[in-house]
Amino acid sequence: MVTLARNVQVAAIVHADVGEGPCWDRVTGTLIFVDVTPGIIYRLDPETGHLMARSIGQEVGAAIPRVGGGLVVAARDGIGFLDDDPRAELVMVAPIEGDNPGNRMNDAKCDPVGRLWAGTMAFDFARGAASLYRIDPDGRHERILRDLTISNGLGWSPSGSRMYFIDSGDSAVDVLDYDVDSGLATNRRRLISFASADGMPDGMTVDAEGHLWVAMFGAGVVRRFTPEGVPSGSVQLPASQVTSATFGGRDLEHLFVTSAAYQMGPDRLADEPLAGATFMCRPGPVGLPSVAFAG
Length: 295
Fold this sequence. Notes:
2% helix; mainly beta; single chain; globular; 295 residues; four-stranded antiparallel β-sheet; 50% strand; Neuraminidase
């Protein structure tokens, strides 16, 4: 497998317990990412290194810019809006699975026209306890997939005709046919299967050539695959628990990768002093623009 980047740099040293959900904000030229467990949303300016942090008071899986301003947030208790004012509090607009205290929201991403797709998972990782939802700009939401374990990485092909989805509990990437006009995802089928030695597939992004970039938790690598699921390269990171990836920068030429220090004891942290950091590199291929929530 071809190594796509040897120039990996540290973009932000935050020692996140579970760094996740990187999203490039094209309007501000900043990277948004989260630390799930303490409920912190970060915003990084890679040009200056300036890093801002906001706590929302509950676990957070992802935060994505809104066309209407501020962020849409996948939090423990559902989907909420967060204004740019640093004094503002999270306003819940879709209390998804609010009647189930054993579950929380996890990864989330917008489709090519700004619908939000967000999944859940159980705090105890129970099999079959999770679901994947579509949240429309008007706030209506619908459960699309059920009986999942860890609803995780999402992505769309450049044409929007294919949707990619990771249930980490299945150690696989699935593909669905996608209708951008209606938001319907159908014909779910297996695209890539992983062995336990490969690590666990976590977050994902898609580049401008339609190739998938899958963060392999436990293996310290982001692997690239063709739309047919054929390996086409990899990026090795100096942290084993890589969690997700996205493209950003002026020309979407940088790959940003989040990581975790989850349940690492002193010995492992001594061996991996950069665990929990967010990394960046220039792998060659460029990305697709992140899409803001249309609500």
